[in-house]
Design brief:
InterPro entries: Lysozyme-like_dom_sf, MltB-like, MltB_2, Peptidoglycan-bd-like, PGBD-like_sf, PGBDSf, SLT_2. By secondary structure, this protein is mostly helical. The protein contains 18 helices and seven strands. It folds into three domains: 152 residues, Bacterial muramidase (Helicase, Ruva Protein, domain 3, Orthogonal Bundle), CATH 1.10.8; 87 residues, Lysozyme, CATH 1.10.530; 55 residues, no CATH class. Helix content is 48%, strand content 6%.
Amino acid sequence: MRFLPFTIALALAPLSAAAQCGGEFSNFVLGLKNEAISAGYDQKTVNDFFRGVRKDQKVLNADRAQGVFQKPFIDFSRRLISQNRIDRGQAMSSKFDSVFRRIETTYGIDRGVLLAFWAFETDYGAFQGDFNTRNALVTLAHDCRRPELFRPQIFAAIELFSKGDFDPNKTTGAWAGEIGMVQMLPRDILENGVDADGDGHVTLKTSAPDALMSAAKMLSELGWSADQPWLQEVRIPEGLDLSETGITNKRLISDWRAKGVQPRTGDLPFDDMNAALILPQGHKGPAFLAYPNFDVYFEWNQSFTYVLTAAYFATRLDGAQVYDAGQPETGLNGTQMKQLQQRLQAKGYDVGKIDGILGAKTRQAVQAEQSRLGLPADAWPTPELLNRL
């Protein structure tokens, strides 16, 4: 176990019950300053960090407008994956081959995995975001939706500032405070940043080696198992018990093989490895086996659709063929999905926020109701299910 210095450990502690969000923004900032000083940072460092800080309404607007995640997997993946991105990924693989070799030797993480994140997060570094990172973090911590996530990031940014690796007035990134080519939060940079190019600084905005090695270290720390698969396209047999599918229903590979699940190409690895059978758009659409490393993706991003698309794109960059889209049944639009979530919630299911997004909790509730109603329990909601409810 790696221990942090006392001042950093205190600054990165989870949000306490006494810590406040909301209220007057100036009072909130004053509270942050006092907490930083109590954590051991000197007055000048604290004043320099917070000088000119302001609430950014554009950050809040972006936080509340993530409609892209309402798109189903096929639409979402086709939007994000293009031949141009594949070609550029292959070019980047060649350009930074020595870095990827170091990563594969040190962490056992396939280059396709990192290339996919690099592509989706910033289009290989081309679009890293122009939001002031300090302002974004303070704004989101002041907002009371997820202060427990963003407040600790402020103190991590102060620590990076004290090391000379963060400029509160010039460091920019995504609206949610992520920085650099692979979009890492300050706390992740502090804990997993790697000076891969040897210049004495962790510079994720301009150094591809730093960004890629840091992302690899972070995935390793999150639990990535070296030299193991993460996702594989498969075909499912007629008559499969669909209630056994879903990200939380894991079976041994040998069990899936015995049930008639077969890889679309190649072979299934490791009979004694657990895997979940994922049907992102029901039993008539694409099918994938998700191996243990797939779960690590959710530590990077909470969106099921994003995670599956990133994992699938990584396999494409490694040479996998385009998935068989099949002929999925018609799904629900955003309004219908919200209606579905409301009806499921009324039946006692925890579907999280009513947001029109088919997330993990909604999928589990859908599958349970499909089983109850005698419908194919593949976790893909259809107008028929909505009407039956």
